[in-house]
Amino acid sequence: MTEVALVPSPEAGAALAAGLIAETLAQRADAVLGVATGSTPLGVWAQLRDQGVDVASTPAFALDEYVGLRTGHPESYRSVLEREYAAPLGVDPTLLRVPGDDGGPLATAGARFEAAITRAGGIDLQILGIGRTGHIGFNEPGSSLASRTRVKALTEQTRSDNARFFDHAGQVPTHCLTQGLGTILQARTLVLLAFGSAKSNAVTRAVEGPLSSSCPGSVIQLHPHVIVIVDEEAGASLEYRDYYRFAWEHRSLDSIQAPA
Ligand code: F6R
Question: Which of 16, 34, 100, 183 could pair covalently with 179 via S-S, beta carbons 3.0-4.6 A apart?
Fold first, then answer.
């Protein structure tokens, strides 16, 4: 089932996501995390630090990586996650795995990455953002709903959205390695965050639209345990937002009251 938490601000959403990570670690000391890059999860890492959540010895698998950037490029997702996630939270960089970071051939990088996830026991909680094309990971429109980790071409929309991290748009790689939608579905819990009006169309299509590879994020509808955290702007066009709000406020069985 998909639960939608409408939060008053990105900070409140990040605090909620950090709390969900803390709960997962409390339930399972050997939990494995799935981490995302981009702007959206940065607040979650800050909240983990502020809430004193100890992820230092928790293995973490990234969703995706650009293809074609030199090793150590500051905008490679390996570098971004080392800088924004691992270093501030004291995570041993060897516990962080990013697709293609083992130096082996690109053609088999996806299979090696999947094998590493399996060896780690699978991902317990996967943090997700969503792109304006509806992508999760870098699964752009047309991605098979059963896809596995592989090389994908990025859309022009995504390259232009990500140009802000580079000196100019032409520097944004054209291709990436990304966990597939089938891979993402295997995580035990998905936590998708989206903030701001630019995400509202993608959020509505993912949560309420038809299940379709035209909106790869809609694959979350197949997952039994998804929490979508949105601020009022990102959730503005959700048809059932009042229902989601009511259901979230009453998610504990203790809060159910008999009608008067
Ligand atoms: C990043 C990733 C992407 C981003 C998405 C949103 O690892 O997989 O799906 O989550 O492009 O990016 P931001 O958060 O920068 O808006």
Answer: 183
Q: Which domain holds residue 91?
A: 2-133+147-231
Is 141 within the bounds of a domain? Answer: no
Q: Which domain CATH number covers 158? A: 3.40.50.1360
pTM value is 0.97
DSSP character string of the chain: -EEEEEESSHHHHHHHHHHHHHHHHHH-TT--EEE--SSTTHHHHHHHHHTT---TT--EEESEEEESPPTT-TTSHHHHHIIIIIHHHT--GGGEE-TTTT-S-GGGHHHHHHHHHHHTT--SEEEE---TTS-BTTB-TT--TT--SEEEEPPHHHHHHGGGGSSSGGGS-SEEEE--HHHHHTSSEEEEEE-SGGGHHHHHHHHHS--BTTBGGGGGGG-SSEEEEEETTTTTT-TTHHHHHHHHHT-SGGG-----
**Domain for residue 76, yes or no?**
yes
192: in domain? yes
User: Is the CB of 79 inside a 6 Å radius of any atom of ligand 1?
Assistant: no
Q: Is 133 in the pocket of ligand 1 (CB under 6 A)?
A: no
Q: Would you say the CB of residue 39 lies under 6 angstroms from ligand 1?
A: yes
141 Cα: distance to centroid of ligand 1 (angstroms):
14
How confident is the model over 132-179, as pLDDT tens digits?
Answer: 999 999 999 999 999 999 999 999 999 999 999 999 999 999 999 999
Task: Please tell me the residue having the least CA distance from ligand 1 atom 8.
Answer: 137
Q: What is the 165 CA–ligand 1 centroid distance (Å)?
A: 12
Flag whether 239 is in a domain. no
Instruction: Quote the ligand 1 centre to 248 CA distance (angstroms).
Output: 25
Total count of domains within the chain: 1
